[in-house]
């Protein structure tokens, strides 16, 4: 899909500071700034004060030339060192294999999950000496966890010239969540009100922010750990103690009454180009990410605002790589930044199967100085279900593998096992990517995964309707039934119901507005007389609507009234209209619309047309052979 480009500034260095004016489009559908939710979004910001990459690589000049894949980028033979060898490092190393890039990881676990796909050096990514030793065998360092020793990284960069992406300065900003908030607030990124918690401020914060009150640890917080909520003043002391006390380094956030939790994976290249993946919606259980849905099922303006906030945040940082940006969609439609991770992120796992370039491949491209890839979706929708330990040890292991077993028999599901040594309750041990033509299908498949094994067959085999057949009265079924017969012949799931524009207007509104969310791709609406149903439905749905003029039983007119009513729609509200009573053609038109994105259905339509040709040729041959007097018409 076509990429979208604009120019933004950065606040990360006085050498590159530019005046930036941020405007959100009033209506993405009618603005030059509008975009489709699954497009690759590109923002260009050129950086001129970075050391040329060819001077950073420790490889020989001859080998560099032989394995160069991009002007100014590191050669393919460069060794990528990753601080951390967990599941993110594992998937990063796996993404490096098709590119022929060697990945090494530094992790204290022996073996670490990433060791299945990368060379591992056993050691702590918080140990300065271990980091320095590890860097000696690498051309570039990156992280799969932000809780590293940034002072050691700065020393490595100064003493060895090994490049580090994102920069130690950026990692340092992000790993202290209070400093992170301060940085983004100063950069003009919208965040919830916050204050540092000290003995002197703890009382005034309660008075200023009110309750509920969110308290957070500044460092080493993840998967909901490091957060505590005080519902009233009586719970503040307990909440503070649960976080290790004020001396442990805490801050408070004013409660943000969000309606949706969103996330955007944003890639930043070495020269400042930014490519954003589609906006994702996340759901959490016990403060741990449970599922994701992409594209997020929120209004277009909300997606536009989410992308603008995410891109502004990453544009204010220095360094290349992929960044996970967590956001809150508020009740009034505004978007607030929650926090940023300087690495691949749980909310971006879906990209492995669902996008043209995964977040892991994109991270490698970014840090190596290679062109960033297409981040658009390859399918209609995608979801992700985290595999969490429901219990410790063997019991938890067995439950997790039952879930994987259900994934193997559910269409569109791709399980990923992280290779951890054991299973612990509420810890991530894998995930399942779920793809489908639409979000309704993805949700149905996730539901099948979560169902008990005995219910899997019924929940996963039920097909979601793709075409809706509606009529103003059940008396119209004698006409509209022909559409159902055609759809049945083609094996396309459909639904049939009565929706009256005049007698049940609220039902019509709800049906039209929810149709695309339920997985429908086209609507066939039959109506007689005033025949308002097709047009009113078309005015409230983004789906194609096909109108069928019907002659109501006992009506004094011949259907021309209905035909003229349906075809005379105002500009901007199209309704495809077939001849009076021709529900068969309405169904065939709906099938042709669907077949444009469905090769299997397209083949069925071609076969249907071939059969029509064969039927006509057979009749012609019989007529020619029997003569016009002897020929008997059989329909």
From TrEMBL:
It comes from Picocystis salinarum. One of its GO terms (biological process) is 'de novo' IMP biosynthetic process. This is phosphoribosylaminoimidazole carboxylase. NCBIfam families: PRK06019.1-5, purE, purK. Its EC number is 4.1.1.21. Pathway: Purine metabolism; IMP biosynthesis via de novo pathway; 5-amino-1-(5-phospho-D-ribosyl)imidazole-4-carboxylate from 5-amino-1-(5-phospho-D-ribosyl)imidazole (carboxylase route): step 1/1. Pfam families: AIRC, ATP-grasp, PurK_C, RS_preATP-grasp-like. One of its GO terms (molecular function) is metal ion binding. Keywords: ATP-binding, Decarboxylase, Lyase, Nucleotide-binding, Purine biosynthesis. The keyword ATP-binding applies. Signal peptide: none annotated. It is an enzyme of class 4 (lyase). Residues 181-368 form the ATP-grasp domain. In the C-terminal section; belongs to the AIR carboxylase family. Class I subfamily. HAMAP family: PurE_classI, PurK. It catalyses: 5-amino-1-(5-phospho-D-ribosyl)imidazole-4-carboxylate + H(+) = 5-amino-1-(5-phospho-beta-D-ribosyl)imidazole + CO2.
């Amino acid at each position: 899909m076509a990429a979208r480009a604009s120019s933004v500034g950065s606040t990360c260095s006085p050498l590159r500071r530019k005046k930036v004016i941020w405007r959100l489009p009033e209506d993405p559908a009618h603005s030059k700034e509008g975009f489709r939710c699954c497009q690759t979004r590109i923002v260009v910001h050129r950086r001129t004060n970075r050391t040329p990459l060819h001077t950073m690589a420790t490889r020989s000049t001859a080998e560099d030339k032989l394995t160069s894949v991009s002007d100014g980028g590191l050669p393919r033979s460069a060794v990528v060192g990753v601080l951390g060898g967990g599941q993110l490092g594992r998937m990063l190393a796996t993404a490096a294999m098709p590119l022929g890039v060697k990945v090494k990881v530094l992790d204290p676990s022996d073996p670490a999950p990433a060791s299945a796909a990368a060379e591992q050096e056993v050691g702590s990514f918080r140990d300065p000496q271990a980091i320095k030793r590890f860097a000696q065998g690498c051309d570039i360092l990156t992280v799969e966890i932000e809780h590293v020793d940034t002072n050691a990284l700065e020393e490595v960069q100064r003493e060895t010239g090994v490049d580090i992406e994102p920069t130690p300065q950026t990692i340092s900003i992000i790993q202290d969540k209070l400093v992170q908030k301060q940085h983004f607030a100063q950069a003009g990124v919208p965040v919830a009100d916050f204050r540092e918690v000290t003995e002197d401020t703890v009382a005034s914060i309660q008075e200023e922010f009110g309750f509920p009150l969110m308290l957070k640890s500044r460092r080493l917080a993840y998967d909901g750990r490091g957060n505590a909520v005080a519902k009233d003043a009586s719970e503040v002391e307990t909440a503070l103690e649960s976080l290790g006390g004020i001396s442990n380094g805490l801050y408070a956030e004013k409660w943000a009454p969000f309606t949706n939790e969103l996330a955007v994976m944003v890639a930043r290249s070495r020269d400042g180009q930014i490519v954003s993946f589609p906006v994702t919606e996340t759901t959490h259980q016990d403060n741990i990410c449970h599922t994701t849905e992409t594209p997020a099922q929120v209004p277009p303006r909300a997606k536009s605002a989410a992308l603008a906030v995410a891109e502004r945040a990453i544009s204010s940082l220095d360094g290349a790589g992929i960044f996970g940006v967590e956001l809150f969609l508020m009740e009034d439609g505004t978007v607030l930044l929650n926090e940023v991770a300087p690495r691949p992120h749980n909310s971006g796992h879906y990209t492995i199967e669902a996008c043209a370039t995964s977040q892991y491949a994109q991270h490698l491209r970014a840090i190596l100085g290679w062109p960033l890839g297409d981040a658009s979706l390859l399918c209609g929708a995608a979801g992700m279900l985290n595999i969490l330990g429901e219990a410790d040890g063997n019991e938890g292991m067995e439950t997790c593998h039952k879930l994987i077993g259900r994934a193997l028999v559910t269409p569109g599901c791709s399980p990923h096992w992280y290779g951890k040594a054991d299973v612990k309750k509420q810890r991530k041990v894998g995930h399942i990517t779920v793809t489908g033509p639409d979000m309704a299908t993805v949700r149905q498949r996730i539901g099948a995964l979560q169902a008990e094994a005995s219910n899997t067959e019924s929940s996963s085999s039920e097909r979601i309707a793709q075409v809706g057949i509606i009529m103003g009265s059940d008396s119209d079924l004698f006409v509209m039934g022909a559409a159902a017969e055609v759809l049945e012949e083609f094996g396309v799931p459909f639904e049939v119901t009565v929706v009256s524009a005049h007698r049940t207007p609220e039902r019509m509104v709800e049906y039209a507005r929810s149709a695309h969310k339920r997985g429908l791709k086209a609507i066939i609406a039959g109506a007689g007389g005033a025949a308002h149903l097709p047009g009113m439905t078309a005015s409230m749905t983004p789906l194609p609507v096909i109108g069928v003029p019907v002659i109501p039983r006992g009506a004094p007119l011949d259907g021309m009234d209905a035909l003229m009513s349906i075809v005379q729609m105002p500009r901007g509200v199209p309704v495809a209209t077939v001849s009076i009573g021709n529900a068969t053609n309405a169904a065939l038109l709906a099938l042709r619309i669907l077949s444009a994105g469905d090769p299997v259905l397209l083949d069925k339509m071609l076969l249907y047309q071939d059969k029509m040709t064969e039927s006509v040729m057979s009749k012609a041959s019989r007529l020619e052979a029997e003569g016009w007097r002897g020929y008997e018409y059989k329909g």
